[in-house]
Amino acid sequence: MRVLGVDPGLTRCGVGVVDGAPGRPPVLVEAGVIRTPADADLPLRLLAIETELEQWVARHRPEVIAVERVFSQHNTMTVIGTAQAAGVTMLVAARHKLPVHQHTPSEVKAAITGSGRADKAQIGLMVTRVLKLAEAPKPADAADAVALAICHLWRGAGQARVAAALDQARRLQGRRGA
Amino acid sequence: MRVLGVDPGLTRCGVGVVDGAPGRPPVLVEAGVIRTPADADLPLRLLAIETELEQWVARHRPEVIAVERVFSQHNTMTVIGTAQAAGVTMLVAARHKLPVHQHTPSEVKAAITGSGRADKAQIGLMVTRVLKLAEAPKPADAADAVALAICHLWRGAGQARVAAALDQARRLQGRRGA
Question: What EC number(s) are associated with this protein in UniProt (chains A, B) (predicted)?
Fold first, then answer.
């Protein structure tokens, strides 16, 4: 399972590709960041993000895209731009018929570090350990995107285990009922 | 000057095309609404909006796109989706090298009705009068998109007059200085 993680943003949009297989540690394929100039027009910035994301998809052929869920409660100056960068990511995914999953920042932090309140340094450290890297992907947005991809692999695996257990329980119950 | 106005939204995205020429009343070309089902996945909804906007652009070849500016202060459940629909609109515009202008709801209301606090019924009424229609474009989102396009024509015309006056003043000053 190859996951493309995207930490949406206009100035720095983190991107990370991670491969995962059951029972094996995840492997980093590529991590980086899409930058657009803060003084460029918003439509051109969104177009630049779309163009580069298309290149990431073409280069790595991910099977799923994991993107950070944006909340309107984050009532900052940047929330609209972040939501639009996330929207462009979902648009690219839909165009390639790739499933998209959104994870909240605290879900990512909890999955990677065990705490939903971890800071950027802790996320970078855990990403480095999990992927057995010499150092954390830089900048922090790239590490966050990689963390999103790992979170998706692990939550997906967890959900698959729960689904399998429920399925088994149902089958056992069916047998008892028969 | 042909303007495509977009009132962004996921469930109902208003679209209106208006032609304007100096000294003549604006003329409605087409108004309508792009609908996406509320129970569909967000990426598919954004893709549907993009696909239909592309069709509007191909059908009418506008010279400029006017889209409602989305604010994070509108701290509702829908602000993220609205921002993403506006982002898709800007993306389509940038792809076709069309200039995009954002207008706030109160700028549109003030331009059309003379009051920044006009309600939907007043906007519908004024759009009907300005364009000499038998009745207001329906639903209200279509009328809002048409109002955005008219607002752009009128604000643009006003800005052009101011720019021309400033230009003339500068030339006069240059002559005096020479």
Answer: 3.1.21.10
